[in-house]
Amino acid sequence: MAGYNLEAIEAAPFKDDLDIVIPTIRSLDFLEQWRPFLKPYHLIIVQDGDPSIKIRIPDGYDYELYNRNDINRILGPRASCISFKDGGCRCFGFMVSKKKYIYTIDDDCFVAKDPSGKEINVIAQHIKNLETPSTPYYFNTLYDPFRDGTDFVRGYPFSLREGVPTAISHGLWLNIPDYDAPTQLVKPRERNTSLCRYVDAVMTIPKGVLYPMCGMNLAFNRELIGPAMYFSLMGEGQPISRYDDMWAGWATKVVCDHLGFGVKTGLPYLWHSKASNPFVNLKKEHSGIHWQEEMIPFFKYLRFSKESDTAAKCYMELSKMTKETLGKVDPYFVKLADAMVAWIEAWEELNPSVVDDKKKCNEKDVKAK
């Protein structure tokens, strides 16, 4: 292992540095099973759908609960950038958090066990991933060299072994795979079991490579990439759904590539318990299935300007490119681009200290010159 004390990382609770964001339309009984792992942390619960419905939260948890009325009150006219009746509403929790790290999980996910039968501590593994560097510029054939028991292989350039800061840790799922509707229909009984398909690996996604990010088991460094982690406008009133996390994944990956941050995928696993209806999903996804053939090349070949030196600046530039290029594909992308601008404006309004600190740093740089 390349010089990092992972035992110290695992022992540290990081409870003052991490918020857990959960989008939901139902009572959160699933948290009972998570109690040994999640109870020490602060929860931000974003209630989607009818705000008059009271949801039950197990005793003993420290939490904030926001519904649509709260979102409208806090964001005012910019509230329209937050999806309604869609899991993308979770990004409101990213915005109001003040912690360094975010972990977000879906309410149909439970504690998984590794092949030895040991329960998996998802927070500990995500923190390990985020607190150790990524290696996006050269692939290590033993995967993450900063994991215990491994290192850089022969032939790995010493000039690249320091790595780069890790912005995103993308976890996976046992039991129900995260498939699109056509694949669900073809493989209705397929399950990912710990004995057959548990892969004990973490790897950095190389620079210039996109990936399909799933939001049900995801952690990220809010200070590095937060403003770009926008789960795009989906759900009620929109022609597309189930692509909110895909958009966020593509956007954050190109921003990370530009700013010199890394993205890891692999461990930890959780147990995904509920298979959604493939026929309903097909209605939600059909536009996205067509549009992704335009969206993916768009992200693959875009380049940011040198002036975009923060995640927020990158995202504002991305909004312009979205309107100019993808706006020709469908008017939805013009609306999305406007929502992206509203998102950044709202983020900066709710997080003024970050903006002010950046301005002070720029002013010092100018005076120094």
Automatic annotation (TrEMBL):
Report the record's Gene Ontology biological process terms: cell wall organization; UDP-L-arabinose metabolic process
Glycosylated residue positions: R154
Q: Which reaction does it catalyse?
A: UDP-beta-L-arabinofuranose = UDP-beta-L-arabinopyranose
Give the source's domain of life in one word: Eukaryota
Does Cell wall biogenesis/degradation show up as a keyword for this record? Answer: yes
| Molecular function terms, GO-annotated | UDP-arabinopyranose mutase activity
What subcellular compartments does it reside in?
Answer: Cytoplasm, Cytosol; Golgi apparatus
Is Cytoplasm tagged as a keyword? no
For this record, the Gene Ontology CC terms, alphabetical, are: cytosol; Golgi apparatus
Keywords recorded for this protein, A-Z: Cell wall biogenesis/degradation, Glycoprotein, Golgi apparatus, Isomerase
**Known EC number:** 5.4.99.30
Site residues by UniProt (Required for activity): R154, R161
PANTHER family xref list: UDP-ARABINOPYRANOSE MUTASE 4-RELATED, UDP-ARABINOSE MUTASE
- What role does this protein play? Probable UDP-L-arabinose mutase involved in the biosynthesis of cell wall non-cellulosic polysaccharides.
Q: Member of which family?
A: Belongs to the RGP family.
- The name under which this protein is listed is UDP-arabinopyranose mutase
